[in-house]
């Protein structure tokens, strides 16, 4: 296979792929909202709060594994350009991620952590462990599929993951099994969707290839990416836990409403991994030609500026109709203030832009800069939660808006100024 790529043809192919994935992704997001509505209307407030915390932890582990998908998609895309399968580096990235997610999930089995996160319900921590381990297989499969441009199978895997959950929940409701644990098990079933695609995916990797590549740089690179993703998860699905740790107290009813609103605004971000994954091989292919690199630099500059404009527009829309949307979906008892919703939408748009720009850094094998970017977000957020004047709710809203603003400026500087003028990272290249 030729290593050169016509940027116009690539743009058309990428547009078609993004369109297909986008449709399936929108369906998956809609199914995710249906899931939470069923929980909210079936469970008590207390049980629903515990289940949302469980869901945040489960999907947080999934989000933390998104670099596995991106890194394997990068390696797989390089392999596709060379006309071969992904090799030993992809297997090493997978094993590193599997061990890391196991350690993180086992940490939640510690009684004090279980008490804080799951209301002392140990079984939920066990379910998170099983789901997290399965997510490692799923994200590896997705990376192989999108890297080799198997868009149809990749899209179906996204849809099946969401559909399995809603089908199991529907069956439970019909059977009258609407207890907390049953819903938790249903939520975890989606992470096993990869089993339906295992045979085809296994054909895209050969551990015997690139057997002489040293393991240490790959493991180090993967650990930095996973650490960055862990920080990402702390300000997306794990934000309620971060608030509880750094700014405890406050009006519990108001915080409950804020977290419901946060869930509405943040849910699409938990499904950004497919968009990030398609960005990685696209950057790899564009970087293989001078024409492509020129187009990439232009797209990054325009996209970064456009993100700020879109975030401002989103904040205005959130201010105007955000409270109404939350009341409509989650009943009148959940009535957030307009300025909360403005801050939520502002931060969510910026986080989405950051996730895409971070994927560009992954494609360029710049794991260190990915880690610095998300560290900047978490540090800025934590400082607001700890020291900003006002009650817990005020700190929580300002923190969720301030962190992504700082982070976007950092990643914009890395990406727009740091796009290489020549060449691109090989599959075995280490972070820098």
**Shape by Cα distribution:** globular
Rounded to the nearest angstrom, the distance between the terminal CA atoms is: 29 Å
With helices defined by DSSP (H or I, 4 residues minimum), what is the helix count? 17
Low-confidence stretches: 421-432
**Main structural class:** mainly alpha
Number of strands: 0
Major sheet, described briefly? Answer: none
What radius of gyration results from the CA coordinates? 21 Å
Q: Indicate the percent of residues in helices.
A: over 70%
Mean pLDDT: 82
Give the SSE order as H and E letters. Answer: HHHHHHHHHHHHHHHHH
In percent terms, what proportion of residues is strand?
under 5%
Would you kindly provide a written description of the structure presented here, covering whatever features stand out?
- This protein is mainly α.
- 79% of the residues lie in helices and 0% in strands.
- The chain has 17 helices and no strands.
- It has helices spanning 7-42, 45-64, 66-81, 88-107, 111-118, 122-147, 151-175, 180-189, 198-202, 215-235, 239-246, 252-270, 273-286, 290-330, 338-363, 367-387, 392-418.
- Helix 12 (252-270) runs parallel beside helix 15.
- It is globular and about 55 Å long.
- Mean pLDDT is 82; it is low at 421-432.
